[in-house]
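URGENT: need a sanity check before tomorrow's submission.

F., can you look over the Soluble hydrogenase 42 kDa subunit record below? I want to be sure the sequence and structure line up before it goes out.
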Amino acid sequence: MRQPGRHFLQIPGPSAVPDRILKAIGQQTIDHRGPDFAEVGKRALDGLKSIFRTRQHVFIFPSSGTGAWEAALVNTHSPGDNLLMYETGHFAFMWSKMARKIGLNPEIIEGDWRGGAEADRIEARLRADKAHQIKSVCVVHNETSTGSVSPIAEIRKAIDAAGHPALLMVDTISGLASLDFRFDEWGGRCRCFRRTEGADAAARTWLQRCQR
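Structure tokens as predicted:
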């Protein structure tokens, strides 16, 4: 069936791809073992640091969304570890479900799905954890299902104010390159980002920035 006009994707993600990027990926494939590919790869990895606002390494790998969550969790935790996860929507809920599947013990701070995570509630819970049994605080930066944004900088300050050693883990799949995000400045330890959401790219490749 003929459709008049030009197709333009208008959903939370993936996002529409600009023409200049479509033209770039329309070129012939180059040798993935050759020097040209190595040069392009290094330039891409170095450029990603400016998006994450970090001087550390960025990891790229092909995966589904749940694959990125799983990789982030299993490489920074052991079975039975306690997590503090804030439910701000469908994807925050699914992340906690993934945590349970791989043997972790998520404690959920329930939200009403109308707003982002509240830093004061996170701080209060961490202050109550005198034995420091909570290993990580997991928050979705921009909840795609609801459009709510969590204040990552405030959450970082809340963790510090509580004097708690928990890792800060952020799903910024639809946040990075769309919202303010500062990995090094905000003291992050692991971020998941899919390049089809906020970075105007086509393939489903996941980027992670992790630091122990």
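My own read: The chain is about 35% helix and 20% strand. The radius of gyration is 18 Å. If you see anything odd, call me.
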